[in-house]
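Per your request, structure below.
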């Protein structure tokens, strides 16, 4: 049923990828004068005058050890955003193919589709923020190439039911992309271990959240070797810089420290959730599998502006479908959360004055 070759755009199937100097010669040598680098060095350390490993093998080995998967199943992008964009470029014919998203969800799936002139079909989540499989099925046609599933989902913070995702994986002949940017904060298992069962599965993760490295721009895609080969064919040759590779490698050595942060953030999240729930302006704090909370309030815009005046920035999601009245609040430090709660307790909705009265 699943045929990767058929799914590819014709121009990508026929593409002869760029061959870099480091693709054409790998190994040890006395003199490297094959890549037009600056042989004298650079104002920084000597190392940076050389092009980086185009396939980031050391970083992939380290990631693979942590995730329990071989490096040939890993693609690294300049943030998840690059992992997202390259799927459109490899699989979706502009003006002809379409993809399905499940809103409210992460905005880049749609923006990237628009950049690539690809139609976006929307299977809005059910009231409990779960996938609407019945609606989703009606949107699929022969030009549907990708289905985007964000789990845990941004901004609703919940995980999608595993069984629902499996139904899609088992029945959709295109690619199913599961964005697990927040998986480390969740009790649910990653789908990475399921890759051998599903040739149509792509799992996205990132170093921007649990790893605390949003500034480095490191996204990861996990998939079959065949899909990773497609990624490698279309990616810019040196998409992860030498500095980024070195820093990522250093961070990956500190998995224990990251696990400690994850535990702390989950603890802080649960405490913040309880404390927010007790506030009169808060209607609901939705359960969260992420490092943020979706909070339904009496007056999202008013509270948002009040917090801004206090120097606290949250995300106003109240205009987003299913998120009326909602603010999205990232779990802060203990002190930041305390400041937030203090400011929220001080919020007074403007006293309602019936018209005609002075
Ligand atoms: C934050 C986030 C990402 C991370 O994007 P990067 O480009 O890797 O920083 C990916 N997906 C979702 C749903 C996110 O919320």
């Amino acid at each position: 049923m699943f045929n990767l070759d058929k799914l590819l755009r014709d121009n990508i199937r026929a593409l002869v990828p760029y061959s870099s100097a480091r693709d054409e010669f790998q190994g040890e040598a006395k003199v490297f004068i094959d890549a037009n680098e600056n042989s004298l060095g650079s104002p920084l350390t000597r190392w940076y005058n050389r092009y980086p490993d185009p396939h980031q093998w050391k970083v992939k080995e380290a990631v693979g050890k942590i995730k329990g998967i071989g490096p040939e199943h890993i693609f690294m992008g300049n943030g998840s955003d690059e992992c997202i964009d390259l799927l459109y470029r490899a699989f979706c014919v502009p003006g002809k193919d379409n993809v399905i998203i499940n809103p409210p969800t992460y905005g880049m799936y749609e923006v990237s589709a628009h950049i690539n002139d690809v139609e976006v079909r929307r299977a809005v989540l059910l009231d409990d923020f779960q996938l609407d499989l019945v609606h989703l099925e009606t949107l699929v046609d022969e030009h549907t190439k990708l289905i985007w599933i964000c789990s845990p989902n941004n901004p609703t913070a919940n995980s999608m039911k595993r069984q629902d995702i499996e139904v899609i994986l088992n029945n959709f002949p295109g690619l199913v992309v599961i964005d697990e940017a927040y998986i480390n904060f969740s009790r649910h298992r990653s789908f990475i271990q399921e890759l051998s069962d599903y040739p149509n599965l792509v799992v996205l993760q990132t170093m921007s959240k649990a790893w605390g490295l949003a500034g480095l721009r490191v996204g990861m895609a996990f998939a079959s070797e065949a899909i990773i080969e497609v990624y490698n064919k279309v990616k810019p040759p040196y998409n992860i810089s030498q500095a980024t590779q070195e820093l990522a490698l250093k961070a990956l050595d500190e998995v224990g420290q990251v696990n400690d942060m994850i535990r702390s953030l989950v603890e802080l999240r649960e405490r913040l959730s309880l404390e927010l729930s007790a506030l009169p302006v808060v209607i609901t704090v939705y359960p969260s599998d992420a490092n943020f909370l979706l909070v339904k309030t009496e007056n999202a815009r008013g509270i948002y502006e009040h917090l801004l005046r206090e120097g606290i920035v949250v995300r106003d999601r109240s205009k987003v479908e299913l998120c009326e009245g909602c603010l999205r609040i990232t779990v802060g430090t203990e002190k930041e959360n305390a400041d937030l709660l203090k400011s929220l307790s001080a919020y007074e909705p403007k006293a309602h004055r019936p018209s005609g009265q002075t």
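The chain has two domains: 4-253, 256-352.

Regards,
D.
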